[in-house]
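Researcher: We're teaching a course module on how sequence relates to structure. For the next exercise, students receive a sequence and then see the predicted structure as tokens, so they can try to spot secondary structure elements on their own. Here is the exercise chain.
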Amino acid sequence: MVSHGRKVNNPGLPRGDVFALIVNCGLLPLCNICYEIADKGLLCGFVERWHRDTNTFHLSFGEMSITLDDVSSLLHLPTIDQFSIFDEVDNNEARALLVELLGVEEGPANVELCECRANAVKLSWLRDRY
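Model: And here is the predicted structure for the students to work with:
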């Protein structure tokens, strides 16, 4: 999360139904992370040095990778056991979730679900909307 010039001190907890999902996935510690200042130059430097093929950063002193232990230590997230188990939802339930939880109108939600031919939407579609 980057503040884009504004301070993000306390974004608050999500709605009750979303909060339950976050707790069940073990991601609650992320709700308490607040970044007040982000060094854009540093972030851009890391992005330029990331290699997708090896999932490592290529730096002047050698390669560096981020391990699950790093994630656990820095973000206080669990890295053992299965991450999450979700029940399959049908097309009507998927549309209802998009409408209720993400505030998408029913028409566009139905179109995207039909285009994907599944009970899912494309990440690019979500990025375009938000």
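Model: If you want an answer key for the exercise: The chain has two domains: 16-75, 91-129. The longest strand covers residues 56-59.
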